[in-house]
Write a structure and sequence with these properties.
Shape: rod-shaped
Largest sheet: none
Order of helices and strands: HHHHH
């Protein structure tokens, strides 16, 4: 079998990693072994934090809905419960957007929830 030298693929791999690690401090951007460790950590953190970010956005939506609901005389918990009783399926993203941009529309949804709560009790 002919002998295969691995210089070109290795060089390509090293360049790829070092290019990704531009902007890092110290040897993390210049030495392959340190850069590779740093890259693996960075990509792991990036993946995990993308998921965390989704939870952060959901918490923001809930805070906005709660603030608007309290102005209308309900708590967040009561509003969501009332909407479930009224069979209104509206997600928190849309509800939050209504609370911020269209207060009259949000108040009409609150009235539906209040009506459902009143008939349930």
């Amino acid at each position: 079998m002919p002998r295969v030298k691995r210089g070109v693929p290795a060089h390509k791999k090293h360049k790829k990693v070092l290019t990704l690690m531009k902007g890092q401090r110290a040897t993390r951007h210049s030495l392959f072994r340190r850069a590779n460790e740093s890259m693996l950590k960075s990509l792991t953190y990036a993946y995990a934090h993308r998921r965390e970010g989704r939870g952060d956005i959901r918490r923001l939506w809930i805070a906005r809905i709660n603030a608007a609901a309290r102005l209308a005389g309900l708590t967040y918990r009561e509003l969501i419960h009332g909407l479930r009783l009224a069979n209104v399926s509206i997600d928190r993203k849309i509800l939050s957007d209504l609370a911020v941009r269209d207060s009259e529309g949000f108040n009409s949804i609150v009235q539906v929830a209040k009506g459902a709560l009143a008939t349930a009790s």
